[in-house]
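Before we proceed, please read the two lines closing this message. Let me know whether the structure tokens fit the sequence:

…
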Amino acid sequence: MNELIRSACLTAFPEVARSVGLQPEALLAEVGIDRRALSDPEMRISVRAFRQMLELAAQRSKVETFGLQIAETRQLSVLGPIGLLVREEPTVRHAFQSLARYLSLHNEALSLRMEEIDGQAIVYVEATVDRPEVIRQGIELTVGVLFRLLQAMVSREWQPIVCFTHEPPARRDVHHRMFGSRVDFHCNFNGIIFSASELDRPQPGADPTFAEHARRYLDLLDSHSGTSLEAKVKELMRLQLSTGRCTADRLAQQVGCDRRTLHRRLAKEQVTFNAILDSVRTNLVTTLLQDRGANLAVAADILGFSSTSAFSRWFLGRFGSRPSEWRREVDKTG
């Protein structure tokens, strides 16, 4: 599995983590998520790493409802441009259809589908996994956010049936505070059941013109979204080079395989791990060295080198001159 998610998924994570006695930055580092993701909602991080972090947080804090407590803070804005479109759709049905259509732009490992049976709408939340793993916190976070979005469009008094496949927590007070009393566990799916008639509720103030502009923008993003393993490895490298932990083993773990499998999959795309690393570094280094405020030690650190001398050797082999010499040549021609 090599799916990515917008780092907007980390919204409220630091606050909730600290409230239960955890250090959010330490958890991020442990699973290989760059702390810069906390300040840039459009960065892409590993879905697998995000899920792992939620489970670690719940386990270490002994708070079974950790994911759900994050969901309680979420607003439509967490979805970025998808949220803008959802807000401007004319009915709840149209809003859900747009959410399901474009959700992969926010989270590549999550999908929504809906069935209408005997006057009931059944929304299924389906998470992609490539092997058995505990993702309880991620599921509760997702269902919680979906509930809040639908509740905002239907009514604050809305109380559907909320379903989870996992076992109930020792205490259900947070679930009841969030969803009301109609929460079932040990179900055969994760999702929400409600009256299908509520799908046709209009959204007051919806702007069809704005919705059309938002839809065109999302279609453009969708057409340019990178689906290759190479593209995702590049993205993860860009985010993690400066951490000093951008290794084949770590990136393989984040895309859901071991290092040997990662190399084999990349070979099928006719590229190697080292070639991608060189490409990412090459794209970054020109910008870094043209910034006179960044010394060579800073550049070496950002590019993931252990020392300035290691950076200089790489640069010499790649460009035929040392970084300081390259800078002087740029200054002359600039």
Notes: Residues 75-224 form one domain. The chain has a mean pLDDT of 88. The radius of gyration is 23 Å. Residues 284 and 303 are 8 Å apart (CA to CA).
